[in-house]
Amino acid sequence: MIELMTREEIAAVREQPERSSGLPARCYTDPAFYELEKERVFRRSWLGVGRAEQVSNPGDYFHHRPLRRTGDYRARQGRHH
User: Fold this and answer.
1) What's the helix, strand, coil split of the chain in %, to 5?
2) Can you give the pTM of this predicted structure?
3) CA 38, CA 55: separation in Å to the nearest integer?
């Protein structure tokens, strides 16, 4: 198994998602992490990100608001665990 994050880094993100600022910076720039992400996330199945009519012409793009993080939702609902 390829390990690109330490056990401590993984635990910090998993145990306290509402306090986490995201993954370590190198996860966004490391070519090895990118290859692993492509293999384990994007090649496993189709991922819907939008509708074809939103990008009907070459060069078209769209943006949307990101989904709420689970930790944020749980905190607002009074369920922290």
Assistant:
1) 45, 0, 55
2) 0.48
3) 22
